[in-house]
Amino acid sequence: MTIPSSRAERLSSSAGSVVFDADVLVLGGGPAGTWAAISAAEHGARVVLADKGFCGTSGATAAAGTGVWYVDPAPERREAAMASREKLGGHLQDRRWMARVLDRTYAQSNQLADWGYPYPVDEDGKPQRNSLQGPEYMRLMRKRTKQAGVTILDHSPALELLVDGSGVVAGATGLRRQKGDRWTVNAKAVVIATGGCAFLSKTLGSNVLTGDGYLLAAEAGAEFTSMEFSNAYAISPAFGSVTKTLFYSWASFTDEQGSVIPGASSKGGRSVIARALRKGAVYAQLDEADAETQKHMRVSQPNFFLPFDRTGIDPFTQRFPITLRLEGTVRGTGGLRILDDSCATTVPGLYAAGDAATRELICGGFTGGGSHNAAWAMSSGYWAGQGAAEFAQQLGVTVGRQVFRRGTVGLRSRSGRPLQGGALAQSIQGEVFPYELNYFREAGRLGQSLSRLDALWSDASVADAPGEQELLRAREAAAMLATARWMYRSALARQESRGMHRRDDYPEQDDRYLHYVTTGGLDEVWTSARPLPSLQYAEAAE
Amino acid sequence: MIEVIDAERCTACDICVNVCPTNVFDKTDGIPRIARQGDCQTCFLCELYCPEDALFVSPFADTPQQLDVVALKEAEVLGSYRRAVGWTDESRHLRDADRSYRLFGH
Asked: Residues 53-82, chain B: which have Cβ within 8 Å of A?
């Protein structure tokens, strides 16, 4: 690894604010953000990473841990790994991207081993690299980020992007919430690695993920894709936050009376659970795990057992009530549209990585679970960091260029009453949590929900900026609201069931919709169809 | 949600204030204060990072609980997550005990 010659420069910290000059600014300090920051630094950039929370604990991975789509490079194993997902994803994946993500994930995972990540070794003495313990992984990533010379700003949520006179991204500004002041980073390129949006549903580790980066990017003109694939729900104990759906593949599911619910299952039967939950309580018990499996579960995912051990429930021998928590675009596949191999977005100088970027390229229309998502975070993080560093280098000297703030809702002084972030967030949850609106979609219900969401947006966009204490909450709510509107407009545009998107009124997959749905816009949300790359190549050859 | 900062064990190192992803704690002149309990997402990470086993996160994500700190300490519940993931000296061997590869594909 090359140690960069210089760090980002701290220009001033007078009058309760701090200004940095950098080549690359990374927003978000989860897996994608840390990989992006390290990659950008390795490619010669002076890097600042700003995290809403604490780089190392914030984001879904740190709290939850993750599988990794780590596949030995043998051609037949790679082929099988790619083929196994195509039908599930509704044939919206891109084989070229899948192959390059497999290669890059293999390299990054092995890099982690070289850095000292304690991968387990199996009975044959072979290291097993298809799983990562969240706290351990992200503690190591924070350390490596610092060692790469990256300046980390913790508890420093971004509020808005800065752009120059020609619309090229020029940095961002935000809050230092524990210091009570502001930060500004003047940068030549920005990587959005702020994660997806789980709408404050308390799915494990996801409450920092409120779609903030989507809103920032959209205000600068970025486009989104596959936002209809955003209805992932995870199983957790009804009272708790630990969503670890894999373990429920050893579960039986019963109703209040103790009768088995026909068809209920963690895989391929979660919709049955959703329907049953609309009628009453649903219980699970992991009674299909034998003693050996139970032992593996205990050492593999200690966090899974916290809600049980602390309430005196033995999940293997006792029933406990469960619920489904919305994972939205964290487990969904949509996000910022990526234009090329460097993970550039449609805004010059703006790059996207991890859950914030579309995962349609490797997952199509169906969630990759933790495994593909972790692989995507490593790979897209690496490429976005490299792309941003190279963009910064090409841009050259930018001293004295004029920059403009692009933030909108919640940031402008108006004559109306201040934006109430907490109340707005609750209203949005009322539109995206209910299974009958989001899980099981239908034109009439989606349309009514969209009317309510559009009205909320109209109100929010004319509201006055709240005080400093309430500003972050207001911007988070605005981001959630924008995300919900892109989701449901896209869901209306896809008049079929494909991947994880299911329409009650169009229950079958329809080949007329074998394309991507692009979306964007703030006051006016738009959608359009975009052909698959394979079909684009075919057209170009004609 | 986070329920307990044990005043007997806490050394006011403020690590929990720094690492909490949702900024639940405030620094004080002494031990930190649970200032915004409603913002706790029940991720258990403050407890994991506490070197003194002074914190306890209740598994109830949506409702505050009344807890008996003495009983929790007697039951050795404080610090149990840190021990289970191998972040204590005596449990370091658990850091590479992950057997997820045996569970995938079920």
From this structure: 57-63, 77, 80-81
Count the Cβ atoms, other than its own, within 10 Å of residue B66: 6
* Chain B partners within 8 Å of A208 (Cβ): 21-22, 41
Burial class (CB in 10 A: 0-12, 13-18, 19+), A396: exposed
Residue A231 is which amino acid?
N
Buried b or exposed e, range A140-151, using 16+ CB within 10 angstroms = bbbebbbebbbb
Residue A228: what residue type?
E
pLDDT in tens, chain B (106 residues): 999 999 999 999 999 999 999 999 999 999 999 999 999 999 999 999 999 999 999 999 999 999 999 999 999 999 999 999 999 999 999 999 999 999 987 7
Interface of A with B in 447-476 (CB under 8 A): none
d(CA A314, CA A276): 23
Token pair for residue A143?
């350390």
**Structure confidence by residue, pLDDT tens digits, A273-303:** 999 999 999 999 999 999 999 999 999 999 9
Residue range A332-360, pLDDT digits in tens: 999 999 999 999 999 999 999 999 999 99
* A469 residue type, one letter: Q
pLDDT tens digits, one per residue of A416-467: 899 999 999 999 999 999 999 999 999 999 999 999 999 999 999 999 999 9
Cβ contact A261:A254 at 8 Å: yes
Instruction: Please state at what angle helix A95-114 crosses helix A75-86, rounded to 10 degrees.
Output: 120
**Which residues of chain A does B21 touch, with a Cβ-Cβ cutoff of 8 Å?**
52-54, 57-59, 62-63, 205, 207-208
A221-268 pLDDT, tens digit each:
999 999 999 999 999 999 999 999 999 999 999 999 999 999 999 988
Contact of A457 with A523, CB cutoff 8 Å:
yes
Is B49 in Cβ contact with A246 (below 8 Å)? no
Residues in chain B within 8 Å Cβ distance of A249 = 106
Interface of A with B in 140-179 (CB under 8 A): 154-155, 177-178
* Tokens describing residue A162: 């800065």
What is the amino acid identity at position A159?
A: L
What pTM was computed for the model?
0.97
Q: Residues A374, A331: contact at Cβ < 8 Å?
A: no
Task: Please give the Cα distance from B67 to A311 (Å, whole number).
Answer: 12
Q: E strands within A230-382?
A: 232-237, 252-254, 282-285, 320-327, 335-336, 350-352
- Work out whether the CA dihedral A261, A262, A263, A267 comes out positive or negative: positive
Strand order in the sheet with A320-327: A232-237, A320-327, A282-285, A252-254
Q: Is B65 in contact with B2 (CB distance < 8 Å)?
A: no
Residue contact A296–B99, C-beta within 8 A: yes
